[in-house]
Amino acid sequence: MSVELFVTDKAGLTKFYEAIISKNETYAPVEKFGKYDFKRVSSFDACNPDAPIAQTMSAKPLFFPRSAKIMKYTADHSGTSVKETDEDSLAGKRVILGMKHCDARALQVLDKVYNWDYIDTDYQRRRENTVIISARCDKAETHCFCTSLDYDVEHSDAMDVAIVNGTDGKVFIEARTEKGKVFLKEMNIEQRISNNEFQVTDETAPAAVKQQYEAFAASFRLKMDYTEVNARLSKIFDSPEFENVSANCISCNTCAFVCPTCHCFKISDEKVKDTGVRYKSYDSCNNGYFTLMAGGHNPRPVKYRRWRQRALHKFVYYKERFGENLCVGCGKCTNSCPVNISIFEVVKQVSETVSV
Amino acid sequence: MEAAVNNQLVSIEKPEIVAPPDWEPVIIGILCNWCSYAGSDLTGTSRIQYPPNIRIIRVPCSSRVDPWFLIKSLQTTADGVLVSGCHPGDCHYISGNYYARRRFLVTKKLLNFVGFHENRVQFSWVSAAEGPKFAKVVAKVTEDIKKLGPLHLYKKENFEK
Amino acid sequence: MDYTNQIREIASKLFAEGKIDVFVGYRMTGFDENQVPALIRDPNEVSKLVFTDKSVFNLTNYLKQDHTRNKRIGMVVKGCDSRALNLLLTESQVKRENLHIVGIPCKGVVDENGNKMQNCIECIFPNPVVFDEMVDGTPTGSEAPPYQVNTDIQNIAAMDLVERRAYFEEVFESCIRCNACRHSCPMCYCAKCCIDQETSTLYHGANTTSSAFHALMTWSLHLAGRCVDCRNCEKACPSHLPLHLLHKWNEQVIYENFQEHLAGVHEGDRGAFYKYSMKDPDDFIM
User: Fold this and answer.
1) Which of A183, A218, A253 is the last residue of a domain?
2) Would C286 be classed as within a structural domain?
3) FRET partner for A217 with CA separation of 20 to 30 A, picked from A256, B119, C50, C211?
């Protein structure tokens, strides 16, 4: 008997989700204006854990919020004083439903930078207190290329509990981490087994899961060897090709705001009379003023240089420093791009201008 | 039109927000230097009383009023805004108030469209000789806004009145 | 609607005559049915150009980008794009002598699901208002149909105040402040936008609902009387917000109250806020 792999059906899974939502602080994709965003949910009907990647925002804002208060202050004639901010609303014990593999994997990539020279304690606390339950994709979408990037989709431990759709309406539930095993125990998995909602798997189950993953991996339209791309891109900082491929980018920054791995931010104050709040909010290196310094000097004054920075940061600098690409192949940027620029295609185009 | 639930005054846009018992509206008055500000001055020197809820800001001309001033006021202190300028034809700068009039209408309609009650922003023409009219206008605006209840839409988060 | 061959011919002719440095058109993405804007500088690449009903993006946006600054440009424009171009010319953002405008008698473009876009169904200026040459000969001057009130606007305006407030609260709450709407808008060309100022007491850049309200309201009022309804902003919005509601509402108010024609239709016309009439409504003022 496998302790971490169970099998159920659609109805059993729905019951399982409902139980999770009723017992925990749960976040799941909620539809608004045709786009899904991760929001706090109180009933299963309000959310859709199987939302398509193309229409779903990343879950990154649950760990790195779009706007976080870093301090409150009062500045008047008697001097300046700094106050504590409100309690972090994302720090409690919680569960995320319906996170895709790529999205969950992005958090592992981000962990590296958040554990680097400065330890972001808020981020760490949010990560520790969160149980991630993934919904697996059955089939690659148009712009997916996660299998081309350096991680093992089948054995990834980025999610604590993985949900795998098998054949004949079977659904496998697999605890991938210790946290996931503890969570399944907390959710009375034994009782579910005695109720016949869940079944214990036999020895054919791992093979069935593997088969599903193989079918999934075969459904990808986009495939490329990124180790080669990394090597090529590291040589072509001065390539004029960057100017060509970035020509039709309009620097709208959508790609950076929807990206599950982008982590640039800006600091801004909001002040009324004497009191103010300092916010840390998303920003994008595609913004013209992103590198603008006091005094007016801008080291990246033109679009192609900013564009090059974004591409090389993802596929060269981060790889060199942390050993991983700052891209998980989710295709969210391509789906959101108003002019249909595909990061996969343009990176390919640039890298093909040099030989390894 | 009075926004009330169980005899309690509530915000008309958000009925779940109940006004405190001693609630008094804050109204920002943006007045043009040449007519309305002088008019309000006359109201004072003539010893005509008007409600103390209005906080007056002087601007050179009603066309100096960027619609953004209204948005900003409503997002911070104000429960309502009054903008006042010279009568058509009387503008110190010949035509400033004609340009302003178009902007006011569009701003008022847009604010109403996104969910502000139409009386949250009001406009008037008050000349330098119309002291009594200014008092009447302020009284009417204050009364209107008292009926609407406190404004709690898109307020800046750290803002404390 | 397929003008691919005509556009390729015109572009190669323009390059051969030495009239342009860059030709701005559309090409296929190469991996699906959609198109990407193409900035062609090499006459040999003219064969990449296409034009079908998938040619959605308003190309006049590229007039504010690095690659086209101070260049002689050939550009493909549809009806709405040409209105944006007209306004940019009026506002001295581009030089007329640097432009060679190729007009398309537009029959409407489609969204990603293949449905005709709502703004194209309601469009009353499908033919370009400014052009150097048309791909299909000069259009015959048929009367523009009367102004149509947008159905979404009607539905929202019919709601009561509390419902409308709740609806727009959701809109502003879903905004992530990426400013893609502004960057994709051909009419937003300020070197530094007022909502990006660092002054903490004036504008603010945090991703909160209040600042989203602030930014979108300021933005839509700056575009009142100037928006040409090309919906680049909606295409760019990652949250799929119905941004056209704000602009169409302003357009309707201006049309009904000031009897102003739509933005960018006439050469030299700067929009409703740059002029006035003695007959403007006065009844809302005490």
Assistant:
1) A218
2) no
3) A256
